[in-house]
Design goal:
mainly alpha, coiled coil, 810 residues, Exocyst complex component Sec10
């Protein structure tokens, strides 16, 4: 037995060094662990000996090198085999390609030959069809000639025999009779007149017989017989006589033909609301609603019958619908609108638009009719294409019907002229009391041109006989809103009844009507009258402030009209750039004119208030500021002119604050306050003021100042505070007068402007005020002498203050 070599690997390790170990999933870590597994079992855990591991790995490396050489040799052999196989494969592919090209070429040749044979067959088929048609035509011609000759001889038995052979025989007989009738009219042969007369008579008998059968079947509701008769008559004469018979004897037309004569709509509860512009448009006439509902029901029922009976159901439905619109709807509509127009133009327009809306809804409902077009042959079409064509045909018919129905009322300018007439009637009625009031006022003042113009406008009404009150002359926002509401309703009708291309034009027409009434005859009349009334105001009489309320209401109405223009009129004019530009320009011109009149009214009112205040101040007595009894001075609160001015100012403020707001109110109050302040400055120069009178004067000023504070205008508060300080000059002792002049607002005023007020003091000379001030009255320089030390102190602080000026107050 051979001795085992200690360097030989154990069987388990040898098994790991096979080619199978390296195939599939392989990791170096697992390989090394498996190699070392047996060695670790025999290793001494206390003293590690690396030699067994070294010998094992060295021997394994040798074995792996041998294995690699073996694998390398096998790879080379396989590569050589693959190369040989690929060469054979490429050769085989080339051979297959060549073979495929030959097959394709053969197939193309075969296809070409088949096409040639097919074309030849087609030509032969066409020739056979032509020959067959010619043969059939020749056969038909031969039969027609034989039938014609038989009729020429008076023999109709052959055609009668064919006619009695059931439905198919009748169908063929009707076709032959139609062709014979055509031939008789076109062919001119000896004796042909007799044959033509006999053929025509036979056609009449045949048609009458078919119509009688159709009528009998109609009464018995035999749809199949009706269909057979209609089919035969379709070939015979286009089925016109059959359609007329069907439509004319329809029960719906017989029972509804006299509907309009009953005038059922006159009993409707909403009829009385039609001419009332303050009531919303009532619903559609109930009689018309009922009629349209019956039409919907009847048409849907008849559509089913027509689809079954007639070969051309769309054509029959067209005749049926046209008859409904022309006979029933038009008759009822004419009667309805005639009665409405006899009531009022507004009632007519409301009825017209309601009927138009209801008719549009009816048309939209009827557009969904399912009419199955059969045609004259058995050729069938796709359902989608058929349905689309028929729906389009029915829709076109209905659209034409509704156009024809309303053309007499909307063609050209007929409709818009009715709207203009309606607006004129309604606005004239609404503004009758208002116009009568101002006309009477003008007539009372020498019969002005405006009054005569109003009488011309309202020629049918004697405005001087109309009973009016003061309230009738007031502008009213509620009236204006009603005017705009009426106009908005007219705009809504125009949108529904006007062609789209004419809508900008019609919107412009309606806008100019609104501008005429709400602008010229309403707002401008009130403003013009205010201007006239203000112009004749007497400052000696008590002021009335109606003009301010007119201005306020006019402003509110203008604002409403502007919103109405932007929301209702301008969008309709947008498609036409020219109309859009013209309407905007005319609206702006109107607005500017009204604003100018409002401004003129405000300015004239301010002038009237100032004149009134000036008059009240002119009532000041010379002795008011030189009282004899000092006890009366202490007991008195203010002079009578002061009380009157204060009362007037309070009324002015109350009226303005109610009618104006924001910057407008502030501007008016500021102008009145400034003017009154200037008047007071001039006023106090005119009177001599005693020491006791100075108290009276300061009480007046204090009351003026207290009244001005309710204006809540800071600039006016400053002015009247300066006036109060100026009033103190009349009550301070002479020795402290100089210090008073150097304080507050007076320090900013040149002494030459204050001097006239100081001179009004009765003690001006007696107490040496002129000497104390250092003023030289004779020279009139009025220059103020200042404390040089004070001026030097101000200069040291960097302040260069000029205390002179060319004005008293700014």
């Amino acid at each position: 037995m051979a001795t085992a070599n200690p360097y030989d690997l154990d069987p388990e390790t040898n098994a790991l060094l096979k080619i199978d170990t390296f195939q599939g999933k392989f990791t170096t870590r697992d390989f090394v662990e498996n190699m070392s597994k047996n060695l670790l079992k025999h290793a001494n855990p206390k003293a590690f000996d690396p030699k067994p591991f070294i010998r094992t790995f060295e021997r394994s490396i040798d074995e792996l090198l041998k294995l690699r050489e073996t694998v390398t040799e096998q790879s080379k052999d396989l590569e050589a085999t693959v190369q040989l196989t690929e060469a054979g494969h490429r050769k085989k592919l080339h051979e297959l390609k060549t073979t495929f090209e030959d097959v394709v070429h053969s197939f193309e040749n075969l296809e070409s030959r088949i096409n040639e044979v097919g074309n030849t067959a087609i030509r032969i088929g066409e020739q056979l069809e032509t020959i067959d048609r010619q043969r059939h035509r020749a056969s038909e011609s031969k039969d027609l000639i034989e039938y014609f000759m038989a009729f020429n001889k008076g023999d109709i038995s052959r055609l009668d025999d064919l006619r009695t052979q059931g439905t198919e025989g009748q169908f063929k007989a009707s076709i032959i009779a139609r062709k014979l009738n055509t031939i008789a009219k076109e062919v001119d042969i000896p004796g042909g007149e007799d044959a033509g007369a006999r053929i025509e008579k036979y056609c009449e008998i045949l048609e009458k017989e078919l119509l009688d059968q159709f009528d009998k079947a109609y009464r018995q509701k035999d749809k199949q017989t009706m269909h057979n008769c209609a089919k035969i008559l379709q070939e015979f004469n286009g089925c016109e006589s059959c359609v007329k018979l069907y439509v004319n004897q329809h029960e719906f037309f017989i029972t509804k033909v006299n509907l309009s004569q009953s005038n059922e709509f006159l009993t409707s509860s909403s009829w009385n609301d039609l001419p009332n512009p303050q009531v919303p448009p009532p619903p559609v006439d109930q009689g018309l609603v009922n009629l349209y509902q019956e039409i919907r029901t009847t048409v849907k029922q008849e559509a089913q019958i027509i689809n079954v009976v007639f070969p051309d159901p769309v054509g029959v439905m067209q005749v049926f619908l046209q008859r409904i619109f022309a006979q029933l709807i038009q008759t009822y509509l004419e009667s309805l609108l005639s009665h409405a127009e006899s009531n009022s133009t507004l009632a007519y327009l409301r009825s017209l638009v309601a009927a138009h809306t209801a008719t549009k809804e009816l048309v939209e409902d009827l557009k969904g009719l399912d009419m199955r077009q059969k045609g004259l042959s058995d050729t069938s079409y796709s359902d989608a294409n058929e349905e689309s064509q028929n729906s389009g045909t029915i829709a076109e018919i209905l659209e034409q019907c509704i156009r024809d129905l309303f053309v007499p009322y909307t063609e050209g300018d007929r409709y818009i002229e009715k709207e203009k007439k309606s607006l004129g009637e309604l606005y004239s009625s609404l503004l009758l009391q208002f116009t009568a009031y101002y006309t009477q006022q003008k007539q009372l003042r020498a019969g002005s041109l405006l009054g005569r113009a109003f009488n011309q406008i309202y020629s049918n009404t004697n405005l001087m006989d109309v009973q009016t009150t003061e309230d009738d002359g007031n502008l009213s926002v509620n009236y204006a809103m009603l005017i705009l509401k009426i106009h908005a309703e007219a705009i809504g009708r125009a949108v529904k009844l006007s062609p789209f291309t004419e809508l900008p034009k019609f919107a412009g027409v309606l806008f100019y009507v609104l501008l005429e009434y709400i602008g010229k005859q309403y707002i401008e009349t009130a403003l013009d009258t205010c201007l006239d009334q203000i112009s004749v105001m007497d400052p000696k009489s008590e002021l009335h402030f109606k003009s301010f309320s007119v201005i306020k209401v006019a402003g509110d109405i203008i604002h409403l009209a502007q919103n109405h223009f932007q929301s209702a009129i301008l969008p309709l004019a947008s498609p036409s750039l020219t109309m859009h530009r013209d309407l905007t320009s005319d609206k702006n011109r109107f607005m500017m004119g009204v604003e100018n009149k409002i401004n003129s009214t405000v300015q004239k009112m301010i002038d009237a208030i100032i004149s009134r205040l000036n008059y009240l101040l002119s009532r000041q007595k010379k002795v008011d500021f030189r009282p004899r009894d000092e006890d009366d001075v202490i007991a008195s609160l203010a002079t009578a002119p002061c009380n009157n001015c204060v009362e007037c100012l309070k009324k002015v403020h109350a009226s303005i604050s109610q009618c104006l707001d924001g910057k407008n109110m502030e501007h008016v109050l500021t102008e009145i306050g400034n003017s009154f302040h200037s008047m007071l400055l001039e006023h106090f120069k005119k009177f001599s003021v005693s020491p006791a009178g100075g108290l009276v004067l300061t009480k007046d000023i204090a009351k003026y100042q207290e009244t001005i504070t309710i204006f809540k205008v800071p600039k006016l508060d400053e002015r009247f505070e300066m006036l109060r300080q100026l009033g103190n000059l009349f009550i301070v002792k002479p020795e402290i007068l100089k210090s008073v002049l150097n304080e507050g607002y007076l320090a900013k005023v040149d002494i030459k402007y204050i001097l006239p007020y100081l001179q009004a003091r009765t003690d001006f000379k007696s107490t040496g005020i002129d000497t104390l001030l250092g003023a030289t009255i004779e020279t009139g320089t009025g220059e103020r002498n200042f404390n040089e030390k004070a001026k030097a102190r101000l200069a040291a602080m960097g302040l260069n203050i000029s205390l002179g000026g060319d004005y008293l107050w700014s």
